[in-house]
Each structure stands twice: as C-alpha cells, then as structure tokens.
Amino acid sequence: MGKNNVQDLLNNADIQDPFDFSQKILQDLDSAVRCKICSELYAAPVVLACGHCFCSLCARSQLSEKEACPACWKPATEDQLRINPAMEEAVIAWKAARAFVVRLATDDHIRQMRPQTPELRPTKKRRMSPASDSDIEMLEQPAAGPSTPRKPTKRPSSPAQPRPKSTARSRSSEPPVDDKLIDCPACAHRVHMDKINQHLDSGCKLPPSTVTTSAKQKDAWSKIFSGETRKKGKDRTGDDAPLPKVSYAVLKEKQIRELLAEHDLPTTGERSLLIARHQRWITLYNANLDHHPSQRRRTAELRTELRKWEDDRKAITKRGTAKEVAQAVNLTQHQRDNKAEFAVLVARARPKKATVAVSTSSGLAELDADGCSSPPVDKEHDLDASDTQVDMTIVDPDAPRPKESAILVE
Amino acid sequence: MAAVYMRRLGKELREIETEAPPAGLRLLKADDFDTWIFQIEVLGDSLYRGERFALKFRFDNTYPFSAPAVQFVVDSQMRAPVHPHVYTNGHICASILGEDWSPTLSVISVCITIQSMLASCKKKELPEGNDTYVRTAPDNPKKTHFVYDDDTV
Ligand SMILES: [Zn+2]
Ligand SMILES: [Zn+2]
Ligand SMILES: [Zn+2]
Q1: Which domain of life does this protein belong to (chain A) (predicted)?
Q2: Which element (helix H / strand E) includes A304?
Q3: Which of B35, B31, B65 has its CA nearest to residue B139?
Q4: CB-CB under 8 Å, A348 with B150
Q5: A399 at the B interface (CB within 8 A)?
Q6: Domains of chain B in sequence order
C-alpha cells in the first residue's frame, strides 16, 4: 500500500452500499444485486450448483478453500460454476441508474421529513373543488420531478459502460473507463493503463514504494510489466477458454516455472510460492472470463492484481508473527494506512446516522452449545421478520462440541 | 482501491452505525481495520443476567474468506463469561469461528451467535482442561486447533 495511501482514500469515496438509501425498499433492492461475500455489486456473477450466486472471483476464492456453498453448505466445485448473464445485465443496468435513484430517493426522503403544511394544501383543494380527482392530485405532486434542483450525492456512481446490445460475445474487449487506472507494480502509484509501460520504462520517476518485496522479485515483476519478457508469452485476453487446473504434485519445479513463464509471470521464489502464484493466476484469469467481454480486464491488469495479492500474502505472514511477539507495540505502515482509510469510512458512516433506521438482520448462525439446548432465535435479537435476505447462513445445527480441550498447532 | 477486506468491513461498520446493532450489543471500539471491540450482554432470563462482557475481533486481509480471531477481553476490568466453551483467557471454542466459518457471516452475526451461546447455557462451568489450555495457549485463538467432538448421536 504505502505510497498510494492518498489514492486509496480518494477511491474510498466510491464505496457504495445499501445505506445510500434511507428507504428500506431501496436498501433491499440494492442488497439484492450484491454478493453476500464481498458486499459489492456482483462482478461477473456465477451460480453454484445449489443456485446461490456470487462474484466469480469470490466464489472461486472460497471454493479453493472449501468445496461447499458458503450460503447453504451444499457441495460445490469450480467446474460446476455457471455464468449468470441475466444478473450481470441487471447489475450493469442498476449501476447506470443508481445515482439517479439515489437522488430521487433523497429528494423524496427530504420531502417526507418536511413539516406537514405543504401537504395539507392539495388535500384541502381537492375537497373544495369537485373537478379535482385523484389524477389531478397526482399531477400536482412534484413526485419524481427533476424540478427540485439538488446537488447530487457526494458519491455519484461511476458511469457504467453501456453494454453492447448484441448478446454475441465480442472478441474485442475495451475495458470500462473506470478500470483504466491501475497500480504501478513497481512504485504502486496509480497510472493510466495505456501509460503503464512508458511509466515503468522511465524508472517510475517517483520514489520507490515502501512495499516489502524482495528486490529480486520486485525486479522480476517490473520486467514483466515493462514488457521485457513479452515475446515468449501470448497475451490471451479475448481467448474464451478457461485455464485448466494443474496437479502440481507431479510437476518438477522447472515445469512449474515454465507454466508461469507461459503467462509472462515471474518465475522467482520457492516451489510453494510458485504454485500459489500459478493457482491464484488461474483463479483470477478464469474469474475474469466470467465477465461479459465488454467488462473484462486486460491481462496486464490481472498481473497487477496478482502482484498485489502476492504482497498482501507476504504482509499477512509478517503481521501474523509480529503480532504474536509484540502486540500493538508499533504500528506498521500498513496499519497506519488502514487507520487513515478507516477514518474516511467512519466519516462517511456518521452523517447518515440521522436518517430513518429500519433494521435489517445479518446472517445468523446457530450454534449448539455444549450441554445447552439449541438457542432460540428470540425477539431480543431484534430480527426483522420481513427479512428478505435469502442467503441466510445455516450452520450445521448439530454443531460440534469441544472435546476435552484444545490442541496447539505449530 | 482499498483492499477487499477493508471495503467489506467498511460496509459492515456503516450498517452498524446506521442501524442500531441488535439489542445487548454495543460497539465499543472500531478505530481501524485490525481490532474491533463490542460490549455484549445477554438480555432476558439467563445465567448471565446483569453481566457485561467485551468481545474482541481481530482481522487481517484474509477476511471474510477466513474467520476473524474472536475472543472475550480479559484484563484488569473485564472477565470472560464462565461457560463450558469459553476458556478463562477469553478464547472461545465455537465451530463457526473455525471450520464452520462462512464468508457470508459477519461481525454482527458472530456477536449474535456468541450471545445465543451464552443465553442458552444451562450450567456455568469452565471447559475441561481449562488450566492446561490457558497455560499454553497462543495469543491468537486462531492458532489453536480446537478439536470438536461431535457426539450428538
Ligand atoms: Zn463478491
Ligand atoms: Zn448454496
Ligand atoms: Zn444462455
């Protein structure tokens, strides 16, 4: 993270969620097109064998940990994933309409909150004038009228690329406008995609990133992004065939390196890293194919993402151990960045507090406590009876109980 | 672009701030994406009537694909509840924090589950082997491999 901290902050401003609406019906509508894993609007939605829907990347990431649907625990595998073009279309349409609906809804909400006086007038009028029927009354109400000029919400939704009318999957795939800024793999600054190679060739012209990556690996990544290794690999964007899974156990380290080289990926690191890198690449690559061609990202962007993932992965291992040794002694850069981002999110969250609160429930997992009866889902938890979340998670009701104690691992 | 786990936590926080959290739960601390603390009490009739506990969540960027590290706060002021699934160092043996975790669960749903676990308890007693465990336990409960023995037959 490090360098692009400020960018992160700015980009946080694009975080949208159902609470952009004060009306429960609209919150529910917004939730209905969101993935229950990442809480974002579905990106490349896919359905599992059970019918539950998630972003392709979310589903694939989860299934590589556990071959079961995270919502209903029915068995599920990556091979069974099916794209859900109807949902993708719904999301694209909703993205395009969302800012407008937020504006209408905000206007309406403000009108509802106003003192009663203006509302009394039409009613009175109607009673007095025999000609006035309900039709006329409706016309008098400024409902949904653009006549009330208001500044749009601070977070207008990014303009969604209109989807081509033809349902045929076109090969040319111009990425959506908002996807064109990518993180430079070497300096972590946001750079326009088309400029990334020039930027890298120029040696970034910016101080090096503080991200902790071994110099050698960073170098390997930089080379890849500067296109030095290009000639060998083919850029497969536009090729619709998903990459097959690989049984790494039967491969020699050299062969794994060759697999990576085929995709212009770094071949540095030890065997476990090579495998993890290749596996993640397949996941990212195949998830990207589940987008409509007009929504797909370029292979270069996927490489950037893979690189980021690798950095995060390293950060976890480091943070994990550091935490064990000296907890909360000094803040790492990463944590400090988090703090700043967090402040922005909190700031966003607070002003909304005043709006009408309608309670929604979160997924509730039941747990069978040892020697205790299964807990009733009681009113005290304030669960909304009209809860519309279909993806309630039911954890195995005969949940396991602890045996004598616990065993330390590692 | 903020990391996926921060975006997800940001949305969870916004829900908590916008809607009041469920009864008996109160957010005490959420200053960063690393550690959140909730006050938790069991309302109504239960063995824990009138008691208040603090539940601590620790996150890393594997969230929500892997469970947060969740434990009761044990310090000069706070104690862990006496419960057959809760060790005196605050560690909790609950399968949803381990093998039954699902990325569709949330911080609030974990709180509710823990609340229910306390609410339904019939006898206040410590887990078997508490002393041994507490003596050797790692700081992070996720490092512990709890053994669940399914004898519901
Ligand atoms: Zn998702
Ligand atoms: Zn399912
Ligand atoms: Zn079809």
Answers
A1: Eukaryota
A2: helix A299-325
A3: B35
A4: no
A5: yes
A6: 2-138 (3.10.110.10)
